[in-house]
Automatic annotation (TrEMBL):
One of its GO terms (cellular component) is external side of plasma membrane. InterPro entries: Ig-like_dom, Ig-like_dom_sf, Ig-like_fold, Ig_sub, Ig_V-set, IgSF_BTN/MOG. It is found in: Membrane. This is Ig-like domain-containing protein.
């Protein structure tokens, strides 16, 4: 994989790394998800390399000299594409189609831009997790709420009893 070799050589010669942006994203199984990433400036991107690092390094998407390369892990074939093919304003976000449980992991984006030598450090790191459906978000929330119900009930009861006691004292003081 010549593209990754060039990226490695450039990274050894690189200037101080740019600031990484790390995000946690939760996808819904079967839907498409955008892995958002933007270069610090809008200079043309010469090399763009998205990888997933668990288990081991897997090629997700490689773009070099205006060409997409097919040397990607089988799991991602025909399932990834750039959100903006022209990468306007440094947008190097990747669309992952039909999310599966196997897509969970840490994704990293590295770029080389014309006139900028800094590919050692990923510009974006995305930790992708998944849920089965939107319903499971509500279900998980309700489960957690009901687990807290006894505590909430006790707090409300104590507050109510304190209020009643305060009102009783006020009524006694008026008489």
């Amino acid at each position: 994989s010549t593209g990754r070799f060039i990226l490695l050589v450039c990274s050894v010669l690189s200037m101080p790394p740019t600031r990484q942006r790390q995000k946690n994203i939760t996808a819904i199984l079967g839907q498409n998800i955008v892995l958002p990433c933007r270069a610090a400036d809008s200079k043309p991107v010469i090399v763009l390399d998205w990888t997933r690092s668990n288990p081991g390094l897997q090629g997700v998407f490689l773009f070099r000299d205006n060409t997409d390369f097919d040397n990607q892990h089988e799991q991602f074939k025909n399932r990834v594409e750039l959100q903006d093919r022209q990468m306007k304003n440094g947008d190097v976000s990747l669309v992952l189609k039909n999310v599966t449980a196997a897509d969970r992991g840490t994704y990293k984006c590295r770029i080389i831009q014309r006139g900028i030598v800094s590919a050692a450090t990923p510009i974006c790191i995305i930790n992708l997790d998944f849920i089965k459906s939107r319903k499971s978000i509500v279900s998980d929330c309700l489960d957690q709420s009901f687990q807290q119900f006894p505590l909430l009930f006790t707090l409300l009861l104590n507050s109510f009893l304190e209020f009643v006691n305060t009102m009783r004292l006020i009524a006694i003081n008026r008489d």
